[in-house]
Amino acid sequence: ADKAQVQFWHAMGGELGTIVDTFAADYSAGSETCQINAVYKGNYTENMTAAIAAFRAGEQPHVVQVFEVGTATMMAAEDKGAVYPVYKLMQDAGVDFDQSAYLPAVVSYYTDTDNNLLSLPFNSSTPVMWYNKTALDAAGVAVPTTWDEVEEAARALKANGVEKPFSMGWQSWTQIENYSAWHNIPMASEENGFASLKTEFTFNNDAVVNHIQRIADMGKEGLFGYGGRRGDSRGMFVNGETALWINSSAYYGGFKSDIKDFEFGQTMLPLDTAVADAPQNSIIGGATLWVLNGHKSDEYKCVAEFFQYLSQPEQQAFWHQNTGYVPITTAAYELSKEQGFYKTDPGTDTAIKELSLNTPTPNSKGIRFGNFVQARDIINEELEAVWAGDKTAREAMDAAVERGNALLRKFEDANS
Ligand SMILES: O=P(O)(O)OC[C@H](O)CO
């Protein structure tokens, strides 16, 4: 008999995409009734935009991978009937699913007010600081733990010939969203959007402004080099131009195969000692799998079984160990320990340590903003104006907050 066909649109390129495709193929090979067709649709924004457009045309995939930034938008889509929430999918399909198997930092990001899980956690990450150990040793400096030390290390690296000692990617995520959580300060009212749609951005506070200005000043001194949005600056770290790079823990798998000329490591995000005495905890990034309405029940049964397959400790531990995404279930974390992964690959527990450093506060449990995909574009634009020397950090953050708040109000109007 013909197998039920499930369309799964994802945004995992390169090695990540190869593993996702393998999961889909392995599951399908073992199933007599289901075929999962995994399709790469471009980066996170492109994939999400494609799925929304497809939904309007009645041609939506069954499953779409959406980055954490799109969560509020997908939740609103759920209210409007476009999304089949995961907890309900599992119930309807009669597939066992234990929400408590997942790490609290992950689940709390994707549950509704009744603690029902709306999308399937799959690839959760958090920002870490990647460092070039060989370059640091050559410059005679230790791995920095504070922002003051980052600046000092950058100076020593520069003096020793490293062209753009410090850089970062996903700049709103790493330097505003996570910087705020790490120092336990809100970036918006209403518990960073979790409490209500009335949330307003407040990240033009002194701490964030001073932090952005510090990076801008490092740029003027030649210590920081901007390398673009998302992961576009990855190559600067890989080719040795940059020796301290803040971005997702999920670069691990690619670094392991691509970096041959130097020793690299990862460490916790630096602390801004002018703002806090100790770090709070970081927040997740990455993406979850959302199920879209409008398909047949036998196909949804396949989705439920595929999700169960993806959640097994074997798959989760493999994914974590080969990518750098966080082990999102306790069982996958335990299995990775048992397998000796953190001993053979030191530093790979940095992300999970950051996420679980302290019990999350309303400032550090995550963010939930409508239209945040667009708001991040605004933040990117304003930060780029700072890096280009066209605006001060104060001017740019004030403008980003004002422009971002207009998007929040638009979302509130459309959804209340
Ligand atoms: O590179 P990823 O998948 O860890 O995602 C980074 C950011 O969370 C995207 O918003």
From TrEMBL:
Carries keyword Transport? yes
Q: Does the keyword Metal-binding apply?
A: no
Which InterPro entries does the entry mention?
Answer: Bact_solute-bd_prot1, SBP
SUPFAM superfamilies found in the cross-reference section? Periplasmic binding protein-like II (SSF53850)
Q: Which GO terms describe its cellular component?
A: periplasmic space
Gene3D superfamilies found in the cross-reference section: Periplasmic binding protein-like II
Which family does the UniProt entry place this protein in?
Answer: Belongs to the bacterial solute-binding protein 1 family.
Function, as annotated: Part of the ABC transporter complex UgpBAEC involved in sn-glycerol-3-phosphate (G3P) import. Binds G3P.
Q: What is this protein called?
A: sn-glycerol-3-phosphate-binding periplasmic protein UgpB
Could you tell me which species this protein originates from?
A: Antarcticimicrobium luteum
